[in-house]
Design the sequence.
């Protein structure tokens, strides 16, 4: 063999590589099976790596470069902290408003017991504890039913003791507790049932929003069912047992202050009802106008604490040159940015092609030190958006010839799975002629770069690469009686190589491959002399029957929907997706002229947002329909059903204003918050209308029932509203990992409860008095 060939140990053609802190390395990735727990899998992998390390040869070190457990632990800590703080706020508020510390502790027991009920249901349903499934639990909302029950029991016991002038014996106390419980059981049961029912349509969500929010709905439903059972059974039993001492019907100072402020407002509202109704309508119209001007995004962006930077180089670059640019880039990041702790990258396509890319593309992961060690800007650690801009500018200055898309590891993979692109927004141009598509994409990119909010705007693998083109001479093939298949076989053998056997050495197997040497593969004159055997036994050279030349051709052509397409990748910073896409659509429609047969489409998060909004268009009406049906079954009156249902638009008014005040765009998280808010608002309206009806059944006229009922129900109304909103305050203002996803939902609920509480206490009594009598009185 050595007389006719060079025999040596070679290597397969590399299609990818990996680097770590500016040096080429070997990178391995653990792939998790679908449905597994990422936290447990990551811990198991880390334990196995520690077990393998001592068995490796000297000098070989295994270094974990990315462990998702760290992010998961940070997010779970944020959830735990928010739940604990919310529980403490709720308990403190109960102690302040109930005026009886024993009753407050009884109500507080509903918090751990309901959570235990929810966790038991999660285990049985195989729902994991995560940012959304646990983060959406509001202890204030959970104790609403218990608050209503215990507050009414206290009032009845105090009134009975005052009437008898002595303490109640156990039998009298049990009888009074039973009477008080019966008084509120119907509206409380249907109220909590309504709150539970509004979460049921969320279970019908599909797609990504379904995977995100269905666990949340399941968990909240379990918690509410547990809270309802406790409110109907345990709360009356504990009250009968522990509230045996002297009980005084007295309001806490906060309730007294609220009544002092509420009394003149109620008198004014009953006297000038048209002014109140007009004001409410104007407020709702303003909220609708404000909603149209809110931005929108699919889901809030979770701060993962790291960057995943897509570095894109010219398509004609080779792997060695790409590795060299990558190593220089990582060294610049480590030298110029003290915030960076370490980096690693994947270039091209790995041996197991789970994520194929060209050798001109790399995914660079950038990890940071704790924020306390970051540089300070105006007394605060520098923002990640500013850091991304500085990195892009520094890399562009020192290493020209590559473009950058800054994202985050999970976010980038999320976008790629959904839309096949690694950016927040993708502008896709479809057509037949790729040269024309490329021209249109270039013009579109120039337009998009000028739109505010477009931080990174780059092509998705456009460009040409050098290629060896072999064009057979058909006439020569016929003249020499040579088949084209012979040319293909010779070229494949010389350039690609052919496996001719296998060498076995212990447990290892080595392929024996025959091919031209590397230096000969790029020699055009030598390739022209490759021999070809004709069917009659003669020999020709490749150059006699084919033309060989180096040329530039399109490296790759992407197709979608059976059409050729080019994509422009856009990452946004400081702007929501919906407003950016709206402006981009307008600019492209006026400044980019598409020839006939060419179309333009927006993909990425915007497409997901549109699809999710379309599904919410079915889910929200279903939830509202369920609310109306349950209200009617409770009140048996179409007029009063419509009256109670008014709490829903009043609550949504506050939710919209809360988003606007906090400069938060509408998202699917906020949409789920509006669904939950509608149930909370209806519970409050239902309780007060039911009490009006009960007072009228006892003989009070409409005016007296409205006046006395509004003042008597002020304390439980304030309590249910305040505990529900306070339970969400830690989530609304948390700054920990994952707080971005919770913030819109909590903000909507808090804002909605504020407006629905005020307007329900003012507008609802006014409308009730107007609808039930022709001439409503202004009260005593």
Sequence:
């Amino acid at each position: 063999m050595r007389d006719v060939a060079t025999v040596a140990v070679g290597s397969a053609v590399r299609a990818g590589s990996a680097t770590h802190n500016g040096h080429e390395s070997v990178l391995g990735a653990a792939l998790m099976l679908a449905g597994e727990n990422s936290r447990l899998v990551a811990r198991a992998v880390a334990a196995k790596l520690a077990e393998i390390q001592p068995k490796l040869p000297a000098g070989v070190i295994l270094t974990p470069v990315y462990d998702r457990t760290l992010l998961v632990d940070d997010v779970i800590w944020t959830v735990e902290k928010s739940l604990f703080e919310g529980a403490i706020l709720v308990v403190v508020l109960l102690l302040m408003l109930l005026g009886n510390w024993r009753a407050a502790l009884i109500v507080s027991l509903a918090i751990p017991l309901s959570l235990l009920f929810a966790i038991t249901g999660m285990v049985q349903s195989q729902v994991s504890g995560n940012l959304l499934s646990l983060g959406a639990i509001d202890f204030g909302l959970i104790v609403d039913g218990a608050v209503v029950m215990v507050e009414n029991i206290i009032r009845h016991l105090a009134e009975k003791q005052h009437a008898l002038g002595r303490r109640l014996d156990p039998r009298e106390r049990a009888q009074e507790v039973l009477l008080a419980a019966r008084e509120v059981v119907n509206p409380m049961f249907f109220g909590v049932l309504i709150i539970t029912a509004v979460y049921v349509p969320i279970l019908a969500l599909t797609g990504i929003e379904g995977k995100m929010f269905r666990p949340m709905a399941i968990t909240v439903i379990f918690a509410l069912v547990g809270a309802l059972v406790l409110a109907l059974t345990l709360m009356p039993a504990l009250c009968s047992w522990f509230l045996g001492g002297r009980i005084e019907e007295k309001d806490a100072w906060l309730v007294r202050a609220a009544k002092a402020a509420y009394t003149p407002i109620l008198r004014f509202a009953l006297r000038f009802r048209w002014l109140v109704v007009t004001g409410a309508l104007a407020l709702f119209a303003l909220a609708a106008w404000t909603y149209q001007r809110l931005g929108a995004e699919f889901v809030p962006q979770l701060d993962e604490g790291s960057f995943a930077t897509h570095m894109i180089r010219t398509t004609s670059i080779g792997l060695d040159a790409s590795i060299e640019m990558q190593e220089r880039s990582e060294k610049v990041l480590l030298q110029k940015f003290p915030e960076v702790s370490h980096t690693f990258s994947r270039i091209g396509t790995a041996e197991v092609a789970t994520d194929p890319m060209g050798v001109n593309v790399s995914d660079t992961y950038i990890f940071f030190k704790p924020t306390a060690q970051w540089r300070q800007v105006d007394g605060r650690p520098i923002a990640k958006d500013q850091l991304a801009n500085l990195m892009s500018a520094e890399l562009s200055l020192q290493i020209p010839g590559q473009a950058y898309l800054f994202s985050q590891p999970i976010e980038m993979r999320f976008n790629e799975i959904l839309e096949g692109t690694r950016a927040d927004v993708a502008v896709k141009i479809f057509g037949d002629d790729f040269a024309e598509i490329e021209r249109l994409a270039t013009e579109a990119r120039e337009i998009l770069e000028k739109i505010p909010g477009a931080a990174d705007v780059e092509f998705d693998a456009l460009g040409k690469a050098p290629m060896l083109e072999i064009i057979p001479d058909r006439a020569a093939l016929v003249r020499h009686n040579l088949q084209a298949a012979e040319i293909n076989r010779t070229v494949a053998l010389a350039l690609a190589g052919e496996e001719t056997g296998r060498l076995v050495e212990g447990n290892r197997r080595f392929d024996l491959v025959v091919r031209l040497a590397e230096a000969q593969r790029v020699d055009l004159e030598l390739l022209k002399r490759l021999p070809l055997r004709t069917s009659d036994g003669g020999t020709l050279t490749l150059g006699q029957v084919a033309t060989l030349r180096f040329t530039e051709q399109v490296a790759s052509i992407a197709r979608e929907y059976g059409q050729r397409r080019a994509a422009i990748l856009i990452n946004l910073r400081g702007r929501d997706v919906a407003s950016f896409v709206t402006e981009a659509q307008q600019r492209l429609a006026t400044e980019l002229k598409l020839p006939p047969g060419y179309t333009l489409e927006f993909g990425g998060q915007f497409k997901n947002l549109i699809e999710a909004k379309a599904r919410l268009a079915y889910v929200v009406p279903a939830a509202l329909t369920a609310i109306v049906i349950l209200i009617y079954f409770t009140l048996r009156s179409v007029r009063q059903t419509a009256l109670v249902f008014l709490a829903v638009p009043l609550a949504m008014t506050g939710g919209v204003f809360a988003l606007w005040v906090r400069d938060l765009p509408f998202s699917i998280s906020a949409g789920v918050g509006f669904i939950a808010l509608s149930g909370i608002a209806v519970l409050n309206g239902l309780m007060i209308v039911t009490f009006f009806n009960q007072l009228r059944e006892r003989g009070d006229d409409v005016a007296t029932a409205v006046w006395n009922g509004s003042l008597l129900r002020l304390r439980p109304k304030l309590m249910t509203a305040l505990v529900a909103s306070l339970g969400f305050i830690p989530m609304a203002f948390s700054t920990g990992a994952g707080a971005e996803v919770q913030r819109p939902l909590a903000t909507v609920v808090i804002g909605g409860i504020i407006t629905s509480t005020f307007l329900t206490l003012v507008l609802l009594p006014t409308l009730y008095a107007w609808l039930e009598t022709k001439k409503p009185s202004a009260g005593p």
